[in-house]
Amino acid sequence: MVQTVVNPKQIIAARVAKEMRDGDVVNLGIGLPTMVPNYLPDNVNVILQSENGYVGLGPLDGDIDPDLVNAGGQPSGILPGGAFFDSVFSFELIRGGHVDVTVLGGLEADTKGNLANWMVPGKMVPGMGGAMDLVTGAKKVIVAMEHTAKNGSSKILDECRLPLTGKGVVDLIVTELAVFRVTEEGLVLEELQEGVNLETVKEKTEAPFKISPTLLFD
Amino acid sequence: MVQTVVNPKQIIAARVAKEMRDGDVVNLGIGLPTMVPNYLPDNVNVILQSENGYVGLGPLDGDIDPDLVNAGGQPSGILPGGAFFDSVFSFELIRGGHVDVTVLGGLEADTKGNLANWMVPGKMVPGMGGAMDLVTGAKKVIVAMEHTAKNGSSKILDECRLPLTGKGVVDLIVTELAVFRVTEEGLVLEELQEGVNLETVKEKTEAPFKISPTLLFD
Amino acid sequence: MNKIISLDEAASFFKDGMSIMAGGFMGVGTPEDLVSALLEANVKDITLIANDTAFIGSGVGPLIVNHRVKKVIASHIGTNPETGRQMIAGEMEVELVPQGTLAERVRAGGAGLGGILTPTGVGTVVEEGKEKLTVDGREYLLEKPLRAEVALLKAYKADKSGNLVYHRSARNFNPFMALAADQVIVQVEKLVEVGEIDPDEVMTPGILVDKIYVQRRQ
Amino acid sequence: MNKIISLDEAASFFKDGMSIMAGGFMGVGTPEDLVSALLEANVKDITLIANDTAFIGSGVGPLIVNHRVKKVIASHIGTNPETGRQMIAGEMEVELVPQGTLAERVRAGGAGLGGILTPTGVGTVVEEGKEKLTVDGREYLLEKPLRAEVALLKAYKADKSGNLVYHRSARNFNPFMALAADQVIVQVEKLVEVGEIDPDEVMTPGILVDKIYVQRRQ
């Protein structure tokens, strides 16, 4: 059941969904990333890992079980074939490269694949939770975030200014305007979202970037 | 059911049994140490840990289960209240100080609490198995061995000559002649086995030792 | 060895200045009755080790709200605004640890390890003050073990010897905290006779559990 | 994703010079049929990682006897005299590792850790060539992770997605080897449908299992 795309978050979630392969083990950060499964085609089934201790995370199915919540603390379900384990094992999976893809929100990402998404000095610090382990251990790290902050400033920088969540960890940045791949030579613009032109992306992106030879212009 | 003591191994096992407290978690090395439970008084129940992955080791009870062996590879049983786990967890218990007492055989033990019991250079080396972890992690390490080697030489030395199993790990040495405690100041003779005199022990012990003030002479 | 205790008896284990671990992820898998007993025992200056500080009114949250905690070691404090407030006001010390690292540190504490090398946090503020080692060309942080005087755990079911079975995502930090404290007290929903839990299904062996409190409500 | 394979298909995973882990303790918990398939595949120069080398005619023993192993990493080789003979004759390299350390090294390999610090082996030949660190006044050896190209596991039961349940002391090294190899192939006695194993009772989640071979004999 593919939903219609109407706002920036949906555009981002829908594009991230295209990165998933059938059978992938996926960990989704809270917020926007949890929307990704709504946009998976019918022939792509992913297995969701929940860092508080299970694989097979599914929607709430029937009555609320107070012992079954997702990593955001919300009542959840588990699909047939799922499995529970303790937090040590959960992070063995995460740190040990057994999670194929993680999708996280971001405050800033940069040309070196650095990600900042866990604290803003001077503001209340919620803590990193499992984010630092996820960006370090997952095989593929996708940052799913709006292109600019509320004040209009670019969140894609030459170098992150906020304290890092991970150093050199990001593989792909997906915004409502564009898709960037992080390479040894910096950012490469891989795609423009529908109806977005290159000038807009250049204007709204502080970081320098190359343009992929495969990028098609209308 | 306390068995009658008739040979050196039985004398040793019977004396080691007196070190056990009700409820102790105990790991017994193969050979002589496995005789210790035969000498426990009725009001002392210990829980045997088997390093290949369970607590509650008991005698073979009914048919042989090919999936249930002790650390020597022999068919075994598990008592009510026992629990199976994997080898990582088994050694978390051992290394982490959750085993109260381990009893191991020895080739040599010395005044510094060193133990050698895993290899003799030039001979076939069986490997240390779990012995190095056991002597490092168990709260109390008891060496249960005959006082002298087959050639009559003392196995209790000023300093071990064979490759060590553990350095400064032994708490108590029990032989068919005597019981020594390892202290900061070296060995202390705590007890003479029944019918053994001090001269015999002095003669058969290469290591220097002090005599406990509590040692009673007839 | 009767391990069953009342809440009043549980209270006798608590002392000012004590280090306490508590299982749970945002309150799920936290022994709420034992936390209440701790609150009523009126002890202060606790060092609290837990995945998170839960909410104002649930999980370990009330310990923070009622100023019983001198220092908290956790991966996430965002769901309990009082934690952040006390931290900024200098009323309480907060050590933030990535969730996988926190789990590994507690495991190391219970497993007799001197620490573990993790890639998580390299290049972030987490590495401040820590030893950094390069193994086979990759950088790791040396993270040290954590232990506590008391662990407060929640399980679904216990037998009278303390063998535990957890339920759903309420397992989280409980199984490995069971190895990392001097006294382990567990709150259970259901108590069964010894022998009623298949040894293959035990998740925490009873040898690690000192006291069992059976909660009234189901 | 059909994970069920025949023995012939299993054979296609084996190559000369490959590193292979196998579960089991003196043959208990070793996938004997997969070992036979490996033997029949006629590959040579294997690096074998296993707790022990079992017996001449069972467990992983026949791999040694038939000269398929270039190097073995194990904690115990005493029950298979051919291992010792080939070691002394210089026909095969043997690395002896304390059992708890071997378990931790494999776990570290699967958990994305750069190593662990263990007190086991300090002051013995085990420390030769290893980094020794002092943490909070105690000495530890830095022990490095172990991984393999293929892990051959034995479980009692699997569902078709690869969720595993082990039986009795046949669990041993199997659960954590499941995380430490590029390809994980498991031999099971019993196959059930997805959903037939309660998610709380799964011991190894299916996401770690690549192929399942259902043994003929029960």
Morphology call of chain C? globular
> What's the helix count of chain C?
6
Question: What shape does the CA trace of chain A take?
Answer: globular
Can you say what the CATH homologous superfamily of chain A is? Glutaconate Coenzyme A-transferase
The proportion of strand residues of chain C reads 25-35%
- Straight-line N-to-C gap of chain A: 29 Å
Number of DSSP-assigned strands of chain A: 13
The greatest interface between two protein chains, and residues involved on each side, is:
A-C, 41 and 46 residues
Beta content of chain A comes to: 25-35%
What is the fold's blueprint, element by element?
The complex is a heterotetramer, with 2 copies of chain A (218 residues) and 2 copies of chain C (218 residues).
Chain A: H1 8-17, E1 25-28, E2 47-50, E3 54-58, E4 77-84, H2 87-95, E5 101-104, E6 108-110, E7 115-116, H3 131-137, E8 140-144, E9 156-157, E10 172-174, E11 178-183, E12 186-192, H4 198-204, E13 209-211
Helix pairs in contact in A: 2-3
Chain C: H1 7-11, E1 19-22, H2 32-40, E2 46-49, H3 61-65, E3 69-74, H4 81-88, E4 93-96, H5 99-111, E5 115-118, E6 132-135, E7 138-143, E8 148-159, E9 164-165, H6 174-177, E10 181-192, E11 211-214
Parallel strand pairs in C: 1-2, 1-8, 2-3, 3-4, 8-10, 10-11
Antiparallel strand pairs in C: 5-7, 6-7, 8-9
Q: What features would you describe in this structure?
A:
The complex is a heterotetramer, with two copies of chain A (218 residues) and two copies of chain C (218 residues). With 218 residues, chain A is α/β, with parallel strands linked by helices. Helix content of chain A is 15%, strand content 26%. Chain A has four helices and 13 strands. In chain A, the strands form two sheets. Chain A has a ten-stranded mixed sheet with strand order 4-3-2-1-5-8-10-11-12-13. Chain A has helices at 8-17, 87-95, 131-137, 198-204; strands at residues 25-28, 47-50, 54-58, 77-84, 101-104, 108-110, 115-116, 140-144, 156-157, 172-174, 178-183, 186-192, 209-211. Chain A has a single domain, classed as 3-Layer(aba) Sandwich (Glutaconate Coenzyme A-transferase). With 218 residues, chain C is of the alpha/beta class. Chain C has a single domain (7-113, 145-214), classed as Glutaconate Coenzyme A-transferase. Helix content of chain C is 20%, strand content 28%. Chain C has helices at 7-11, 32-40, 61-65, 81-88, 99-111, 174-177, and strands spanning 19-22, 46-49, 69-74, 93-96, 115-118, 132-135, 138-143, 148-159, 164-165, 181-192, 211-214. In chain C, strands 1, 2, 3, 4, 8, 9, 10 and 11 form an eight-stranded mixed sheet that branches. A three-stranded antiparallel sheet of chain C has the order 5-7-6. In chain C, strand 1 (19-22), helix 2 (32-40) and strand 2 form a beta-alpha-beta unit. The longest helix of chain C has 13 residues, at 99-111. Chain C is globular, with a radius of gyration of 17 Å. Chain C starts with 6 loop residues before the first helix and ends with a strand. The chains are: A alpha/beta (218), C alpha/beta (218). Chains in contact: A-C, A-D, B-C, B-D, C-D. Chain A binds chain D through residues 22-23, 25, 47, 49, 54-56, 78, 80-85, 91-98, 136-137, and chain D through 1, 107, 110-113, 159, 161, 163, 179, 194-195, 199-200, 202, 205-208.
